[in-house]
Write a structure and sequence with these properties.
Elements lengths: L5 E3 L5 E3 L1 E4 L8 H14 L3 E3 L7 H13 L9 E6 L6 H15 L4 E6 L15 E2 L2 E2 L6 H13 L3 E7 L3 H8 L10 E5 L7 H9 L3 E5 L22 H10 L3 H11 L3 E4 L4 H7 L9 H8 L26
Parallel strand pairs: 3-4, 3-12, 4-5, 5-6, 6-9, 9-10, 10-11, 11-12
Antiparallel strand pairs: 1-2, 7-8
Helix pairs in contact: 1-2, 2-3, 3-4, 7-8
Protein name: Prostaglandin-E(2) 9-reductase-like isoform X1
Organism: Microtus ochrogaster (Prairie vole)
Family: Belongs to the aldo/keto reductase family.
Length: 322
Amino acid sequence: MNPKLCAELNDGHHIPVLGFGTYAPEEVPKSMITEATKIGIDAGFRHIDAAYMYQNEEEVGLAIRDKIADGTVKREDIFYTSKLSSTCHRPELVQVCLEKSLKKLQLDYVDLYLIHFPVPMKPDNNLNPTVENGKLLFDTVDLRDTWEAMEKCKDAGLAKSIGVSNFNRRLLEMILNKPGLKYKPVCNQVECHPYLNQSKLLDYCKSKDIVLVAYGALGTQRYKNWVDENAPYLLEDPILGAMAEKHKKTPALISLRYLLQRGIVVLAKSFNEKRIKENMKVFEFQLPEEDMAVIDSMNKNYRYSTAKFISAHPDYPYSDEY
């Protein structure tokens, strides 16, 4: 991994600052995920972001193993992230869930393992979410107990680093102030883009030496059940358009560059070969401070992925300011 294109984590490991996202809705053929991941690795992506819940780790693992087999990369060149299913927050299920991911991937370890969402669901073979009479079945698990089980996964060598996703400040503090804390979360992966620039959460995470990782960095696709179909299209915003013209780059590259320059690790997701290759060009230019300030002004705290269906749970993360 190129050290210049990496950020240091608080446990001494390094994370490539540009990652390849692999989530795809059910209608996307699984074979396309393998193909896109291979294209991503060929284009230079070394950070692959996935999750147990995406139900495509066999396909992503196949792509990684193929690229190792053909000599493009070695295992240690790849930084692979997986995430704990919300149905596996009970401490005794945490390592079981990780081992299932590793079995699907046919890998010995993941580089980063995250608590995918702070809201626990009742254990269930149906991944997400558990429903009875149209109501979600929440579980009562203390996040600190889940975190202790995550620490054991790190000690067992199954995960090199451990972190969280979709946590707000209050939930992060719950972990950070836990008596007997062995490892701090190395990162917090959250939705972040020019319409939701997360400046307060970013400052807080930096103060605690926690890396902010951005998903939805290009706005987001209209995923049924997750995103309002009338949501604004970030990449069609005239401010980004004007800046793209000025720098002779795409609006997507301007958005990615903006996040990178703020010290955020960015996930870019595309299954389109041309766009996958294009996203790697984010390292070829810099935005001057005045352009960064203009993009800052686009913030409207607009969240594409609100996960409203879990808003009744006390650990729902989006009611707090940050």
